[in-house]
Amino acid sequence: MSGAALGLEIVFVFFLALFLLHRYGDFKKQHRLVIIATLLAWYLCFLIVFILPLDVSTTIYNRCKLAVNSSPAESNGSYVTLAPSKQKCFKPWSYIPDGIMPIFWRVVYWTSQFLTWILLPFMQSYARSGGFSITGKIKTALIENAIYYGTYLLIFGAFLIYVAVNPNFNLQWNQLQTIGIAAANTWGLFLLVLLLGYGLVEIPRSHWNGAKRGYLLMKAYFKAAKLMTEKADAEENLEDIMEEVRKVSESIKYNHPLRKCVDTILKKCPTEYQERMGRNMDDYEDFDERQNSYPSEKSLAKLHKQVIYSVQRHRRTQVQWQILLEQAFYLEDVAKNESSATRQFVHTFHSQEPENKIIQYFYTPTVEWYWECLLRPWFYRVLAVVLATFSVIVVWSECTFFSTNPVLSLFAVFIQLAEKTYNYIYIEMACFLTIFFLSICVYSTVFRIRVFNYYYLASHHQTDAYSLLFSGMLFCRLTPPLCLNFLGLTHMDATISHKNTQPTAYTSIMGSMRVLSFVADGFYIYYPMLVVILCIATYFSLGTRCLNLLGFQQFMGDSEMTSDLIDEGKELIRREKRKRQRQEEGENRRREWKERYGNRDDSTRSRAVHTDQKESSFSETNASRPLSKYTRSNGRTERDRIELLQDAEPLDFNADSVNDDPLESDSGR
């Protein structure tokens, strides 16, 4: 079992990262290099989080061996026995042999740093570029990243000058490496505390609010109003871009040197626009360079970039609108079924996707009613209390982890109590739950935040390549300082505990932070205390209120603008619900019409065809008779009348069908 735990976690984390990437990315449409780079970044970061508890348990066992070897001892199988006190150092079930973890951490850490500082920024510019060739995209990416890389070189040069001027330091490769690691971790810790302060409050509060009746439904109405505005803006933007593409396509003819660039742009347009532009294109007209002014390749590259962005945004808003409608309809069904006397969950609309038969067998309407209307609110409340307790422990430990005598960090107390009894299962579970909760608070914030349309992680395969790569960069920059912060909370970092003990393998590759004393003894110790201020600001929704004042509508219960948007969203959902109801009623009437008159129409059509064949043969054999053409004509008229009656659909004369609302014009038509 020495390496089995490490191997199992490596495989499990890979499939976890693959599952999340499949949820947010699109394997079919996005470039393979983008998928591979993002998957590698996510995989390495998740791997660090899952493997670090094994490093902690292995380090505790190695410390025990060192203590035993310093005294007379006897070897006995899988543990070492201390002669005077008969103390036993049991080998943990997940023990990793010496020499494996340092190599493993070195490969994982430096690969993630290469991704976040060099490869992923370059791939971002490459994926967003509107160039028509690989060389053009590479050139654009290098130009855009020149300032980016120059800024980092300036920061590293400042650290290098500080160390060079200080006479107490001798510049060596290990110290230069430590300076680079310290600079990266300082930037990551600065962002880590901001995201952590938001997640520690928002995650428990979101679960608590989710248990309130009507809260999720009101929030769905609010999202519907905002998303409808964004959807209309995306459609208008797409129409404007397609109009520019049409003009360019009509001006640049088939024998123009830039026609290949125009064809590349047309391939990125939606199908209906391609067909419309193809009908209006006259490929047989030659171009005249002297009479017409043609766009340059640079302007076409800019237009290509705009087309990619507008099409992606339009498709994302369309998918999100359909998903939001399903959520709103389901939440309305939950509100209606809460007062049901039969205690069976009744859906207004049937699911459009086929459900699993196993799920249908166990998740019956009765089970669904008890879960949605009775158990789920209480489950969310209990979960919110547990998460809030964890948040309080984290905030307390962040403010007191620098105290070693007495030990005030609760996580350090838990680990030290388990270390005395060498309960490795408890140590690994405590470490895993701690770092997993910290990771959830930080990573969930990364998935939630949205920087206009510049960065936005949208589920259901609607995230663009730029946002996927940007998330990989954030994960690679946040995970190393997150792990160092966790080791500081548990006093497994010698810099915090001030003990001359064997460090963890992860800490050993970071080097001694004493090279930069103001970072090791100042920033790393006192900056995490700001999480208290950030938690208070998040609890009182100061950031949300500031955004609301600036004109960015946020969901706030005591805001008049929020109430107006909720009413607007409620009306939009009501109209979409009526539209879908009319569609289902029309399909049901069509189905009933076919079931009732289908056989009769088939027999009538067969008789009509048979009669027509007989009359046709009769007219051919008696072509000299003047009345034969009337007989044939009458047969065809009768057949056409029967076919028209068969294809006719019953009309729906309901009060809702007569509506002047423009949003329902399609369904009314």
From TrEMBL:
InterPro entries in UniProt: GPCR-associated_LMBR1, LMBR1-like_membr_prot
TM helices/strands, residue ranges: 6-21, 33-52, 103-126, 146-165, 177-201, 378-396, 425-446, 466-489, 523-542
Annotated Basic and acidic residues bias: 582-617, 635-644
Parts forming coiled coils: 224-251
Compositionally biased tracts (Polar residues): 618-634
Keywords noted in UniProt: Coiled coil, Membrane, Transmembrane, Transmembrane helix
Any GO BP: adrenergic receptor signaling pathway
Pfam families for the chain: LMBR1
Places the protein is found: Membrane
Segments of skewed composition (Acidic residues): 658-669
Domain of life: Eukaryota
Example of a GO cellular component annotation carried by this entry: membrane
Membrane topology label: Multi-pass membrane protein
Region (Disordered): 576-669
The keyword Protease is assigned to this record: no
The keyword Membrane is annotated on this UniProt entry: yes
Family statement: Belongs to the LIMR family.
Protein name (Swiss-Prot/TrEMBL): LMBD2 protein
